[in-house]
């Protein structure tokens, strides 16, 4: 699995990547492990470069992006991701938004997308650690089935109890 953080400030080293820490903590329950991690500025060409590399050359099963999905003029992750997708999986992004909205109504302003490129599921997550945890609470139970359908390989089930219950 790869985690791509998209943030100008984090790419410049001005702030710590707290969402990545939240993702690592959630994935500690298995069966996934992070094998690739990178921080890029919010530049579509750089986002697409990493997505292309990790999906086409590295063949990762899952790529999670973190950050750059708000309505601001500088947030380009959804558009860059959408250009890389062969198939969208709108139900994943819709479910994440719907469930996150119950905890934070501003989640309705999220523009994250999800879909497939080759045999890789790509999902845009928010950049804030709590919003990332809320999104993962929804996403993690879906991953084994999604990955199996995309790759044709069974994946072990995730632990049923999450730290954020």
Outline the structure in words:
This protein is an alpha/beta fold. The protein has a single domain (2-148), classed as Molybdenum Cofactor Biosythetic Enzyme, Chain A. Helix content is 42%, strand content 16%. It has helices at residues 8-11, 18-27, 44-57, 77-84, 90-103, 129-139, 143-151, and strands at 2-6, 36-40, 62-66, 87-88, 114-117, 120-125. The chain has a six-stranded mixed beta sheet, with helices on both faces. A hairpin with a 2-residue loop joins strand 5 (114-117) and strand 6 (120-125). Helix 2 (18-27) packs parallel to helix 6. The two termini are 24 Å apart.
Mean pLDDT comes to: 92
Number of strands: 6
Which stretches are low in confidence, meaning pLDDT under 50 for 5 or more residues running?
A: 158-165
CATH class: Alpha Beta
Notable traits:
single chain; 165 residues; alpha/beta; Molybdenum Cofactor Biosythetic Enzyme, Chain A; six-stranded mixed beta sheet; 6 strands; disordered C terminus; MPT_Adenylyltrnsfr/MoaC-Rel; nucleotidyltransferase; molybdopterin adenylyltransferase activity; molybdenum cofactor biosynthesis
